[in-house]
Specification:
Blueprint (H helix, E strand, L loop, with lengths): L8 E3 L5 E3 L3 H20 L16 H29 L4 E2 L1 H22 L15 H22 L14
Antiparallel strand pairs: 1-2, 2-3
Length: 167
């Protein structure tokens, strides 16, 4: 018996993915996905990491770019949220569905990182600090995201190296 927690996402032999999340984790995601949808509808300034600047040195070019892609990016975010909501209580999903999970959890993490003004230096917070729980949430989202990426990439072929080339 392992003392380590089960991996929350695991690739199965048939190419599908098993989801091992508690009811609390699923409810937590459900709640935060609703909040993300509301932020997307409100065009909240905390979404800036979801729509990064494309042309930092040219405001006019960046405005044109944002006008061109913003609607498509919003639609993609809503589609990913809908995918997660439709499969939130499932025990297995396919690759496309897990990709939607990855996109939504990443979006949640980016927004929370913006709200918390996350930087390279982690804050020195104790459990009694009012800012402690949001940082724990941020770390939990990163943990989930890391496991999704690991599950999605675990069956990828190893990249060829120069050593693999015929002599």
């Amino acid at each position: 018996m392992s003392l380590l927690p089960r991996r929350p996402f695991r690739r199965l032999r048939d190419g599908r993915f098993e989801i091992n999340l508690s009811t609390d984790q699923r409810d937590f995601l459900r709640s935060f996905l609703d909040q993300l949808r509301d932020l997307l509808l409100a065009d909240d300034p905390n979404l800036k990491r979801l729509f990064p600047v494309a042309y930092a040195d040219d405001a006019e070019m960046d405005a044109a770019y944002q006008q061109l892609v913003h609607g498509q990016l919003i639609e993609a975010r809503f589609a990913a949220i809908e995918t997660v909501e439709a499969t939130l209580d499932a025990t297995q999903v396919d690759e496309a569905q897990l990709t939607g999970w990855m996109q939504s959890i990443n979006a949640l993490r980016l927004v929370l990182g913006t709200v918390l003004d996350v930087s390279e230096e982690p804050p020195d917070l104790g459990p009694d600090d009012p800012g402690f729980e949001p940082y724990v949430l941020y770390e939990e989202l990163g943990w989930l995201l890391g496991h999704i990426v690991a599950a999605l990439t675990e069956a990828l072929p190893e990249p060829a190296t120069d050593l693999d080339a015929p002599a």
